[in-house]
Amino acid sequence: MIFSVVKNKKNLIVFFTVLIFSGCAVYAGLNYDQIYGKSAPRDRITPAYSTVAEHYLTEVKPIIENRCVVCHACYDAPCQLKMSSSEGIDRGANKEKVYEGTRLLASNLTRMFIDAQSTEQWRELGFNPVLNERDQTAEANTQAGVMARMLQLKQAHPLPEQKILNQDEWDFSLDRDQQCPTIEEMTKYEQDYPNWGMPYGLPQLADGENKILMSWLEAGSPMASVPPAPESTMNKIKTWEAFLNGDSLKQQLTSRYIFEHLFVSHLYFEDEEETVFFNLVRSRSATVTPVDLIATRRPFDEPNVERVYYRFVQVRETIVDKTHMPYALNKAKMARFKALFLEPSYAVTELPSYDPVSSSNPMVSFTQLPVEARYKFMLDNAQNTIMGFIKGPVCRGQLALNVINDRFWVFFVDPDMANLPSVNAFYERQAHNLRLPAEKESNTVPITNWLHYSKQQGDFLRAKNDFMKTTFKNGEHLTPQVIWDGNGINQNASLTVFRHFDSATVTKGLIGEQPKTAWVLDYSLLERIHYLLVAGFDVYGNFGHQLVTRMYMDFLRMEGESNFLSLLPEAIRHQELADWYQGANTDLKLFIQGDINEFDQPSGITYLTDTPKKELLDKLKTHLALVQPTRYELSEAALGNQAIAALTTIGRMQGEHVSLFPELSYIMVTPNDTNKPPQLFTLVRNSAHKNISSLFNEESNRLFTRDNVTIVRGVLGSYPGAFWSVKEAELPALTEKVLAVKSEESYKALLDQFGIRRTNPEFWPFSDTLNQTYQANYPIESGLLDYNRVENR
After folding, report:
1. Does the first or last residue of the chain, that is N or C, have fewer Cβ atoms within 10 Å of its Cβ?
2. Looking at residue 107, what DSSP letter applies?
3. Residue 199 preceded by cis peptide, ω within 30
């Protein structure tokens, strides 16, 4: 009893001491040091097959993934706290934002597993622990750790009983101020923001889940890294590394090209029972020795070694949808690479420089590789190639994505057209006009460089138009036959790109009704998009670098659009372009009417209607009919005809009221047949614009009356804005409610009946079913969804 009194008295002293000094981080730090000892990183990674590791992997990690990683992954993780790996949790948080569009100088790199290899190194780079790094006692682990305190704060202050959280108290905007408290600042944080425990703005963890996490934290947060890949997978890696690290100059150049296009992909072996994902990296060390990672800002930066080796490194982070780009490897793929790059008869006489001016320009670096080989390599997995500029170096970014329309179709010039000596010679002559902003690295002065690149692009387009006039004289080849048909088997032959304000999705096939615009990409355009927005883009770069990159993409988009327009009757081209660029500024109009659309050869298509664009898109869809996927077709859902009809009706919405819906709404339908699993659908809002040439005031270019939606079967996108839950029998009622949405109040009424708001007590069970169903339907492609954009309405 005496001991208990003394202990309680000690706790009271500790409490009042912390309270007194909470306003000053220095004193608070000293106080924590005095009570719990000095802070120092701890070794928390346990042996892979120990009982402790098994407990973490089977009991603790699933909770962290499904309750924490859904907001804390990638560069847009609040406070840079990436909880998608044990190493990321141990790394902790940082008050600096990665997405900072106004910085004058490029910031320091903080890429997980690349820019530091230990927790000590991350501390030197300014990361603060969220786990206790002082004395490893139960009391210290729960009182001197930010994560534990955040969980306790939430349990003590659950969400208020409100359908919609108070807008003055809660901020869910993506550019919101982030507190990112250190443990020394936690007491003040708890006083100022008592309702801001974790998960932020979402229901608290269930008692059982919270108990598991708190017990784990009390025990010192022992963790395990990902289990090693099976021996059969490692044997395949040896084969692939041997292939990629061949000694011939032809092989070395080929491997460099492959690496610079796949460095953001998640590679896997599709003939393995267990799917394990890998990254392809540059290493100082050769095969069969430990990887010695070469960490550079860009994949083509100077490695400062005599010989680069290309190695496989296992992905150690939880797979999240917003960064996941699976790329299958197998014997057929290796044979394809050899057939494209190694077997043809040509010579590589020397390896290209890593000088920024040449290495950032693939038309210079890889001029010794056949254009046909390069183009077919990208086309084979065109979805992956285009997806790279959306999921690769960035997770989000309005400034980067307001350069594209909300939904458009993408076609490709037949690669056999690239197998002409005249095409190779043309690209070689134009290499100086195809230089890209990455040559300036990550600190760029926007205006002067913009003028420089604008002139280059104009010169290139004039030369290209002259070249095309000769190649397509009198409309020769300007028919659907000029468009790649995927050889009748490859579904990458056509793509649909959906923009969701500051994120986007790329799907195979021509999804939805005919769009406003379309692109036709040839080799040079596809290659430049990759080196502009993936290989050459630096999310840590300064404002100038990001701005010039975005402005340059204007050129590439218009070039792709112009290629599409060249298939239309000559008299229609300017008319269509004028509709796409209503209200464009004078300089842009001059550019469009001059350099970019001087091509005046007639189309080789005989048009029979007064709606040639519709007729052309119909012809192209017929041309590609054999390679159109059915994945997103509503008719493929395991629901009755009445249910499909109701969903189809929702998909016909258009008009100003459509803007009331979020970018992405996920719909979970419980079938009448209870033996069938839940059916998932995505309602995509497509926002119309007068033009997309404005950098900052996008709202002024909106055409709300032309807004429409696309509804698809399955999950599309990574960032849901709203969740609906409905029984199959209720779909007619849901449809009636959706069609009645004409105001904010009527939208709220829809959610009152069918929505799963962020305040709903059933939010987490719904979330679990959603992610589990997505994973079951698409085990390779799926990843955890991100909840940073779930609306508070």
Report:
1. N
2. P
3. yes
- The structure's pTM equals 0.91
Strand-pair category, 495-499 with 504-508: antiparallel
CB 615 within 8 A of CB 670: no
CA nearest 563: which of 554, 551, 573, 548?
573
What is the 3-class SS of 406-470, one letter each residue? Answer: CEEEEEEECHHHHCCHHHHHHHHHCHHHHCCHHHHCCCCCHHHHHHHHHHHHHHHHHHHHHHHHH
H or E element at residue 508: strand 504-508
Question: pLDDT digits over 202-211, tens only?
Answer: 999 999 999 9
Helices 421-429 and 446-471: crossing angle in degrees, nearest 10, is 160
SS3 232: helix
**End-to-end CA gap in the chain:** 53
CB neighbours of 203 closer than 8 A, spacing ≥ 6?
Answer: 158, 159, 758, 759, 760, 761, 763, 764
Query: What span, in angstroms and rounded, lies between the C-alpha atoms of 290 and 301?
Result: 22
d(CA 31, CA 22): 10
88/316 Cα distance (integer angstroms): 10
Q: What is the pLDDT of residues 255-310, one digit of tens each?
A: 999 999 999 999 999 999 999 999 999 999 998 899 999 999 999 999 999 999 99
Q: Is 66 exposed, middle or buried (0-12, 13-18, 19+ CB in 10 A)?
A: middle
Yes or no: domain 634-777 corresponds to CATH 3.40.630 = no
- Which has more confidence, 536 or 656? 656
| DSSP character at residue 696 | S
Residue 609 Ramachandran class (φ > 0 left, ψ -120 to 50 alpha, else beta): beta
Exposure string over 645-679, b if 16+ CB within 10 A, otherwise e: ebbebbbebeeebbebbbbbbbbbbbbeeeeeebb
Question: What is the per-residue pLDDT across 585-641, written as a single tens digit (0 to 9) for each?
Answer: 666 666 655 555 566 788 889 999 999 999 999 999 999 999 999 999 999 999 999
* Domain coordinates in residue numbering, the chain: 34-218, 228-351, 396-629, 634-777
Pick from 198, 185, 105, 114: nearest CA to 159: 198
- Is there a contact between 668 and 755 (Cβ–Cβ < 8 Å)? no
β-sheet with 518-521: strand ranges across: 504-508, 495-499, 407-412, 518-521
